[in-house]
Amino acid sequence: MFDFSVVTQWVDQFLRSFMPAEMAVLAELILIGLCLLSGYALIALALIYAERKICAFFQCRIGPDRVGPFGLLQSFADMIKMLIKELIDINHVDRFLFNLAPFVVIIASVLAFGCIPFAKGLQVLDFNVGIFFLIAVSSIGIVGILLAGWASNNKYSLIGAMRSGAQMISYELSIGLSILTMVVFAGTMQLSAIVESQAGGWFIFRGHLPAVIAFVIYLVAGTAETNRGPFDLPEADSELTAGYHTEYSGMHFGFFYLAEYLNMFIVASVATTLFLGGWMPLHMPGWEGFNRVMDHIPSIVWFFGKTAVVIFIIMWFKWTFPRLRIDQLLRLEWRYLLPLNLVNLLLMVVVVVFKLHF
Amino acid sequence: MNLTLFVVVLITAVVLVVAALGIARLVSPRSYNKQKGEAYECGIPTRGGARMQFKAGYYLFAILFLLFDVETVFLFPWAVTIRDLGTGGLVSILFFLLVLILGLAYAWKKGALEWK
């Protein structure tokens, strides 16, 4: 299987061949930043396009098809339009917090984005507490949303932000506990090590029933965490205009939009990494020829393919289920998912301690 | 090295926001209109500020969240070492979780999980 560290080592040697070591390291760091930035922007634009197309097909429409072939350049055009729109100064906002909020939201999603193992050897941040770090930084986003709602001095924004805060902190628990269940199974928090240990089979297959339950809980909680789908009541357009970003215009709004789609990608890629084997190919025990063919598919294709499937499922939720009320939403989390999650955690511990897994 | 990369990613995020906002401020048009600065609520002049008394239910859920979130922080180190701890680890965490589940049951019984 192709290892991306070959590329990085080649770049390293190439840079060191004509500049001093410190300069080479600096250049590499800048390169990493640029790659991360372009990856971030490209994935967000691709997801916006995918969302619009998939939504259109669910509603028996064609969707964007005028800008570029099949409307592929539509989201680029949207981004340019957002850039050239005026940033309106509202009268009674708390100016400092109002401007700080997009920073917080974007920082949270970029930091989480940096942790994801995209392919073999292609990962920026690989802490030994990786998954814990990822949960920690992605929950900073809640602070950004609350700041945005509070600083806007708008009733819609404040209600949206409060609902969003209540929803996101509630579902944070389910995400944390279902990830914890898989950490029990993996025995490590380092994301690259988690992927490596799935070489013999993906966790969702090897982990028996608890892994499947954890996967379902993770998907539900992840959808709620990104304020999407049936859980989009913080920005319920028919009652709150746009929720916490009502007062944001132009590129300010663009950041919330970008972060929302990127958060969906992060949720999907964490699901891929923890349950579906990350960039590991599908292997069937005993099928030698099949396994060898699967090994020839590059790891980055495996990763993005699996993530795309999870993202499609999350989008499917959105266009299938009606919106929940806030009491139903909180009841689902605190009365069903949380107790189920605690029991599931104990079940997983029993499976691990008594070695019942495959 | 990891810490350096962390700082690089952090700077990348800040650069993304600053650069995009800078470009937007450069190319976007500016026009002044008195109506524009008003809160976008319903069209007629807004009454009162938005920062008023708020439903206490949100705070109740925030406190409950704090409890369970701290619990998760305690559970993570245990989760990594469970294979070495074996049955002893299972029994000790069973007690810990039991106390927490009792707490959740208490909150449930008191109606704290009810949205009224």
Summed up, what is this model?
By secondary structure, chain A is mostly helical. In chain A, 69% of the residues lie in helices and 0% in strands.
Mean pLDDT of chain B: 81
Rg measurement of chain A, Å: 21 Å
In terms of quaternary structure, the protein is: heterodimer
Structural class designation of chain B: mainly alpha
Tell me about the largest β-sheet of chain B: none
Fraction in beta strands of chain A = under 5%
- Work out the number of β strands of chain B: 0
How far apart the termini of chain B lie comes to 51 Å
What fraction, in percent, of the residue positions of chain B are helical?
A: 55-70%
Percent of residues in β-strands of chain B: under 5%
Structural class of chain A: mainly alpha
Count every beta strand of chain A, where a strand is a DSSP E run of 2 or more residues: 0
Helix content of chain A: 55-70%
Query: What string gives the helices and strands of chain B in order?
Result: HHH
Can you walk through the features of this model?
The complex is a heterodimer of chains A (358) and B (116). Chain A has 15 helices and no strands. By secondary structure, chain A is mainly alpha-helical. Chain A has one domain. The longest helix of chain A has 38 residues, at 21-58. The two termini of chain A are 25 Å apart. The model of chain A has no long low-confidence stretch (mean pLDDT 84). Helix content of chain B is 67%, strand content 0%. Chain B is flat and about 70 Å long. Chain B has three helices and no strands. Chain B has a domain at 55-116. In chain B, helix 2 (57-85) runs antiparallel to helix 3 (87-109). With 116 residues, chain B is mainly α. Chains A and B meet through helix 2, helix 4, helix 7, helix 12 and helix 15 of A and helix 1, helix 2 and helix 3 of B.
